[in-house]
């Protein structure tokens, strides 16, 4: 194959596809929840524990894979992680109890944790700073497309086969992606399909220390001494659990509140998760646009984060929705705002750290988000079980939506205080 113009966007397509498969695989358990809880007699607390098993493994996996991908590189690291999670996804089909599903979710969580450290590091390698938020927004749109694909694919497989085949078929998709990754990916300096002009465009928009050819080791533990690391930990630790809630409990929320039949493709849920694509791409575009207009990088990121945090207060009004489509509209707006927020938070490691440390920082922050994802389901499971027993599960959901609405502003305030001095960590400081 000869040289190709704008090859970096082909790389984004690969990242988008992997992220789509990643979220397709993790979303299946939420869509199958009404079926599996009847077959295996789960309570809301049982399901919460299954979710917690995934998020606990995800937390550990983020820490390990963040370090590993910085160590062995994006090509090998991404290959390993997708093989790991695809096998774990397929093994759900042999589970026969809540404990068995918990074990399968642990494997899936460990493997899927490598996706974001690898993807964000790839963006740092392939894009100048002014384009990173847009590139991140584009691949991060795979989170919502993966869920939409699940909403279409899962009911079809269920109707044609059964729930076991859902896991076998979707788990195999990762191996299809792996073929294209191995054929098409390499770092810019080694990629023969890349034109000289595009290589110059990429490297000229990166910091000098990012372009050093020689791999320079960093002291991983030193990352915890920088407020920039704690700012990212805050952005992930407080907000990621909210998306876990949107991901795993929204199908059940609509089934219990509006009698939605999850055995059929759901237009309502498709619209909600499609809205996250708009937020992901739009949020990345907005901060990139401000940077191109001359705004300092960190100022642009924090400005759009504040705007999205204020708008996210609208999620509190979901409790006043008087019909399914009013709820769809409000939740669609809320999840779009979340993805717009998440896209800009994801760029912070590549904005504030040399690329040799990006995967490690992403892994540390992702671990914090997963820890929050372990704790938040405990609250959700207890609330929903108690209110379900009282015959008013809707009240439990209303409390959860209110908590979600205020958390973004709290997170932004802490991030702002930790990054009042817009200093970029130098590579020499990490040795």
UniProtKB/TrEMBL annotation:
Record InterPro entries = MFS (IPR011701), MFS_dom (IPR020846), MFS_Na/Anion_cotransporter (IPR050382), MFS_trans_sf (IPR036259), Sugar_P_transporter (IPR000849)
Mode of membrane association: Multi-pass membrane protein
Could you tell me which residue ranges the Major facilitator superfamily (MFS) profile domain spans? 11-423
Alphabetical keyword list: Membrane, Transmembrane, Transmembrane helix
Q: Name one GO molecular function term.
A: hexuronate transmembrane transporter activity
Question: Any keyword Nucleotide-binding?
Answer: no
Compartments (UniProt record): Membrane
Q: Which Pfam families match?
A: MFS_1 (PF07690)
Transmembrane ranges, per UniProt, are 6-25, 46-69, 75-95, 133-154, 166-185, 229-250, 270-291, 303-321, 358-379, 399-418
A Gene Ontology cellular component where this protein is annotated is: membrane
Official protein name in the record: MFS transporter
Q: Which organism is it from?
A: Dyadobacter luticola
| Lineage, opening ranks | Bacteria, Pseudomonadati, Bacteroidota, Cytophagia, Cytophagales
């Amino acid at each position: 194959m000869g040289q190709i113009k704008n090859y970096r966007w082909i790389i984004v397509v690969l990242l988008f596809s992997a992220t789509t498969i990643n979220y397709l695989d993790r979303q299946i358990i939420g869509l199958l929840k009404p079926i599996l809880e009847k077959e295996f007699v789960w309570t809301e607390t049982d399901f919460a524990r299954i979710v917690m098993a995934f998020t606990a493994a995800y937390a550990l996996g983020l820490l390990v894979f963040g370090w590993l991908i910085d160590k062995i590189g994006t090509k090998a690291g991404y290959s390993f992680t997708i093989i790991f999670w695809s096998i774990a996804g397929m093994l759900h089909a042999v589970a026969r109890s809540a404990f068995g599903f918990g074990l399968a979710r642990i494997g899936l969580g460990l493997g899927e944790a490598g996706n974001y450290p690898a993807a964000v590091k790839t963006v740092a390698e392939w894009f100048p700073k002014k384009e990173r938020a847009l590139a991140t927004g584009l691949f991060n749109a795979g989170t919502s497309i993966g869920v939409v694909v699940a909403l279409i694919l899962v009911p079809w497989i269920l109707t044609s086969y059964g729930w076991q085949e859902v896991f076998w078929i979707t788990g195999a998709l990762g191996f299809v992606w792996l073929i294209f990754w191995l054929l098409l990916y390499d770092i810019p300096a080694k990629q023969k399909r890349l034109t000289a002009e595009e290589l110059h465009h990429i490297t000229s928009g990166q910091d000098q220390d990012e372009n050093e050819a020689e791999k320079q080791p960093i002291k991983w533990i030193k990352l915890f001494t920088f407020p920039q690391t704690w700012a990212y930990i805050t952005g992930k630790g407080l907000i990621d659990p909210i998306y876990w809630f949107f991901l795993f409990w929204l199908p059940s929320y609509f089934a219990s509140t509006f009698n939605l039949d999850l055995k059929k493709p759901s237009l309502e849920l498709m619209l909600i998760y499609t809205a996250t694509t708009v937020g992901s791409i739009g949020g990345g575009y907005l901060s990139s646009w401000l940077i191109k207009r001359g705004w300092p990088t960190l100022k642009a990121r924090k400005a759009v984060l504040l705007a999205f945090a204020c708008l996210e207060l609208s999620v509190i009004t979901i409790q006043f929705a008087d019909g399914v489509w009013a709820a769809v509209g409000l939740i669609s707006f809320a999840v779009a705002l979340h993805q717009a927020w998440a896209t800009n938070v994801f760029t912070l490691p590549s904005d504030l750290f040399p690329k040799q440390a990006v995967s490690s920082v992403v892994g540390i922050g992702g671990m914090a988000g997963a820890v929050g994802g372990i704790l938040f389901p405990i609250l959700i499971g207890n609330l929903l079980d108690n209110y379900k027993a009282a015959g008013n599960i809707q009240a439990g959901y209303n409390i959860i939506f209110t908590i979600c609405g205020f958390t973004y502003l709290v997170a932004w305030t802490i991030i702002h205080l930790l990054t009042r001095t817009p200093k970029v960590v130098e590579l020499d400081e990490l040795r």
